[in-house]
Design goal:
single chain; mainly alpha; rod-shaped; transmembrane; membrane; transmembrane helix
Amino acid sequence: MGIGGSIFLIALGAILAFAVEFDVGWLDINVVGWVLMVAGLAGLVLTIWFWQNRRRTTVVQQPTERVVPLQTERVEERHEVRRPSGRLYE
């Protein structure tokens, strides 16, 4: 409904409840005015409540992508450890 529609219902209900002296045999205009004011107030409260929930910000950090360069040549590394006698450790 929105804030504008809610304020319109409250204003229309107030006009019907307090300013109109019209009598229909089976319909009480004052009661219709009060119902419209209550409906407008409920719509206004709900609209403000939904807007407050929507305005909360949530920060989500996207994982950063790491760019790994393609290796075009293979590198091997070997370590040899020798005993003082010259033989390899096994």
